[in-house]
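Obj: model holo form, ligand = iron/sulfur cluster.
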Amino acid sequence: MEKNERQTESARQAEYIRLVRQMADREKEQTGRSRTFHVTTFGCQMNARDSEKLRGILTEMGFQETEEEQADFVLYNTCTVRENANLKVYGRLGHLKTRKEQDPDLIIALCGCMMQEPDVVAKIKDQYGFVDLVFGTHNIFKLAELVYRRLTENQPVIDVWEKTDEIVEDLPNERKYFFKSGVNIMYGCNNFCSYCIVPYVRGRERSRKPEDIVREVESLVSGGVVEVMLLGQNVNSYGKTLEEPVSFAQLLRMLEDIDGLKRIRFMTPHPKDLSDELIETMAASKKICRHVHLPLQSGSSRILQKMNRHYTKEHYLALVRKIRASIPDVGITTDIIIGFPGETEEDFLETLDVVSKARFDSAYTFLYSKRTGTPAAEMADQIPDDIAKERFNRLLALLHSMAESTSGKLVGHVEDVLVEEKNSRDPALVTGRLSNNMTVHFPGSDSLIGTIVPVKLTQAKGFYYFGEQMEDTEL
Ligand code: SAH
Ligand code: SF4
Ligand code: F3S
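Output (holo structure tokens):
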């Protein structure tokens, strides 16, 4: 889409927002209350960011957000990366069916990655015919138009696009936190790791123009944001396909110059493309957080090859060493899949070996989940559940025993902490995040939320710290 067309599309959607808002205002005059909405988000930060845009559009249309799912408009933004994610959605739809029978005015909408799978949409039409609205990952910007159609046509609206090369800028959005925000720098993925459904449901890689990203971050900062999380499935390949190519490290340097922005995070880099330029840029930066989430997936070079990851065990470990040498206080976290087809005990031991050597600050561990349509689903030697689970438990045991020895390395240090929320268990405490992404709980009041304060880390508890706030001058 050319720039003018993109502007026209935003303008078209603004018109639908206005039309639905008129209907909502009229309804409010009659009933004395606003229509309410609730968005439930499954999956990754991409979906979380999409949900902020969806909530923004709903709010502009005159709907009022509720904390509870007991709303007039219920939207599930779904994930399909593992089977479990799908099962959760079907389970919850079962409950919604009963509600819909009692309240036919309830609007149930589904969007996100699951909806990009034709089998899922067929199943919804067939078994969940009470769902009002279905759309996919490529057309969230059309929410207002789709809601308008649902309200005026009085029949289910299903609109899923197979693919897109469009990026619609300037959507409204309703952020969860006033002081931090996700920022998409690219959409889609071209890597086709053999187990992964994401490239099929999120489409081909598309980078946003650096000037659009800088403009968005500047506007976020002028609205009070101090931390941004740059989002992409493989941030290291950012900018390669732009008319005027820009590297990810170059983009980071442009953002570093924005006054008022205090912290920059990013997710996810791919080990195969993590450049020296990026490591040097991080090491020299005052704003880029000391955290690299570097998904390992497997420690066996043989399995990595079958996964289509394009790196070896040795390459990965060398990268970890290089990052730690250049950025001494860095936190390195990872994702690991257990039970990929053909994984032998020896392959699994290689994964344990990398875990011991890399000394991860934390790890997300997943049991391999077969995703129809991916090459791995067709591979021989799918691993029986009991073997995979037994390995999974051994991996967890190793991670826990290592957490006891690796965590605590910052005890006694004073670190800058961005205070994020009141502690959910103890109202006398607030919870914040260190540059290396670990959390810390310390005594403090709500008024600290959104500020960066120095905190002395007094005690380590596995994956988090306790601390006490210091006076600024003591830093
Ligand atoms: N783009 C990111 C991650 C996207 S999905 C990356 O390349 O790292 C997040 C994580 O889900 C992956 O890192 C992987 O560990 C896990 N995952 C993806 N597909 C999976 C599958 N079929 N079964 C189990 N875990 C999977
Ligand atoms: Fe999936 Fe691999 Fe793309 Fe990550 S890089 S989203 S794991 S295909
Ligand atoms: Fe899930 Fe889609 Fe993210 S499949 S992990 S929500 S990109």
